[in-house]
Each structure stands twice: as structure tokens, then as C-alpha cells.
Amino acid sequence: MKGPDAARSAPVFAALGDPTRLRLLARLSSGGPRSIARLTSGTRVTRQAVTKHLHVLAGAGLVRDLRRGRERIWELEPSRLGDARRWLDAVSAQWDEALERLRAAVER
Amino acid sequence: MNNATDRIEKSIVLRAPLARVWRAVTDAKEFGSWFGVEFNGPFSPGVPRQGKITSPPEYAGFTFEVAVDRIEPMRLFSFRWHPYAVERGRDYSKEPTTLVVFELEEVPEGTRLKVVESGFDRIPPERRATAFRMNDQGWGAQMKAIEKYLGAKR
Question: Do A29 and B139 touch (CB under 8 A)?
């Protein structure tokens, strides 16, 4: 990883370099979008601290918030284009393999 | 529609006569032998066919449906299906399909085969995320690693 890639990734690594933030990501990942109240319940971390950590994660593009009525809900940033592209790459690789088998069948 | 994410295009030149390639692509049995699937009957426009995956082994036994769209002898063959439909227990029938088009053309070296699969932009994003997770990459696997790491530290 060099140049722009590394520069783009640095805030991500910094954001991940904290156990509370990792735990927040894990909870959002396994439990889906949640409010701060639900993210705080069952932990000893204060609401203010969770809010602060969520903003660090948002700054790194890892989570985002959406308003639902009067509540603010946090969720993992889906980075749709990235996922879509990688998914398509997987489908594309399957085609490559299948077409090579077709080649082997017809060129015999 | 976004061209970068909506379609896959492949083009290969096969050292085989046009008629041979046409048969390999449109005969359900022959198609099955190189694609790794067993169909429950021949391809015919407008007739849905069930296919059972035979290879790769990790997906063997999964079934999917293809709806043959057009058969224009020696030139074009197309069908619709649910791409990457390999999640156990998921009902794909209500989801949008992609269109797969095979186009054949005689060239001096043999036959040029073009394959275009399009319509990916309409596939629900969470399904892409799942397929992506099944590749053992991406968020799902990352999060499992993190959870494990946190569990070990507790």
C-alpha cells in the first residue's frame, strides 16, 4: 500500500486502534443499526464517550448516522460501490473459470 | 444504471467451429458439463428449467432456475437467472434476475464468444454483502476476527 491508498487508510487504522471503538463496530455489525442508548446499555461506557467514539468512526468513514424520528440511529457504512464491485469481481471470476472449462470442452 | 457495477462482459476466441460452440452453449447437457450444473430438460424459449449445481463441491446440490429468453440459431442465446444464488435456505424467487446473453460470431481462428451478464444494479445490496461475506472477505469476516480478539482479551 503506497501513496493515496495509505493516506486514505490511516484514519481507518487510527479509528480501529481502540477497544471501545472495535466493540462498537462489532455490536453494529452483529446487531444492525442501533441508537446510542442501545449501544450504551450493558456497558460501563458513558453515553458521551460512546458519542465521541462514534464520531471518530464516522470521521474514518466506518459508520454513519441516520435520524429516525427524534432518534439518531447509527449503522455501519455500507460502502456500497466497493462491496458491489467486489461482489461483481467474484461473479466475474466464476465466468472466467466456466469459460475456460468451455474452451477445454470445445477445443478438444 | 452504472456500467461499472451493472454488467460483466467477457469475450473469448475459441479454436472450434461455430456449430460446435453453439451446441456447447445451447444444449442443456453440454452447458451443464462445463458450467457444473445438471438441468432437468432441454433449453427452450419461455420454458423455466431447474438446474442442480454439480461443481464446485462447496455448492453442489444447490438448485436454481433459468428462464430461457431467446434462441437465435448460431448467433444468440439468452436467459435470466439469479446470480450467485448460493445461500442456503434463501428464497430467491422474488428477487430481480440478471440477463445472460451469449453471442457467437465466426472468425478466422474459430468462433468468438461474447458473454454479457447485466442487471446487477437491481440486486439487493444486502445480498451482495452476503455473497461477499461468503468469500471470507469484507465486514463479516473482519467483525468475526474482531469479536474473537475482544473475547480473548476479556
Answer: yes
Q: Which of A18, A103, A108 to probe the B interface (max B CBs under 10 A)?
A: A103
pLDDT in tens, B73-109: 999 999 999 887 666 677 777 888 999 999 999 999 9
Length of chain A: 108
The third-level CATH classification (topology) of the domain covering A3-77 is: Arc Repressor Mutant, subunit A (1.10.10)
Q: How many CB pairs under 8 A join A and B?
A: 96
B72: closest CA of chain A, how far (Å): 20
Could you give the CA distance from residue A32 to residue B113 in angstroms, rounded to a whole number?
Answer: 44
Domains of chain B (ranges; CATH) run: 7-120 (3.30.530.20), 124-154 (no CATH)
ipTM of the complex: 0.77
Banded model confidence at residue B116, pLDDT cuts 50, 70, 90: very high
Name the strands in the sheet holding A63-68, side by side, starting at the edge strand that comes first in the sequence. Answer: A34-35, A71-76, A63-68
**CA nearest to B16 within chain A:** A107
Average pLDDT, chain B: 81
| Closest of B116, B17, B93 to residue A91, by C-alpha | B116
Give contacts of B87 with chain A, Cβ < 8 Å. none
Cell of A78: 455500507
